[in-house]
Amino acid sequence: MPPFLLVFVLSCVIFGVITSGFSKRMMPPFLLVFVLSCVIFGVISVYMTSYSGVNAPLITSCKSSENLTLEKWIEPPRNLMHNMTDEQLFWRASFEPHVKKYPYKRVPKVAFMFLTKGPLPLAPLWERFFNGHEEHYSIYIHSSPLFQLNFPSSSVFYKRQIPSQVSEWGEMNICDAERRLLGVALLDIANERFVLLSESCIPLHNFTFIYNYLTGSKHSFMGSIDDRGPQGRGRYSINMLPEVDISHWRKGTQWFEVQRKLAILIVKDDKYYPKFLKFCKPPCFGDEHYFPTMLSIEAGQVLANRSLTWADWSRGGAHPATFGGSDINEEFLKKIQRASTCEYNNNRASVCYLFARKFSNSTLEALNPSVLGF
Question: Whose CA is closest to 269, among 301, 241, 243?
Answer without folding.
Answer: 243
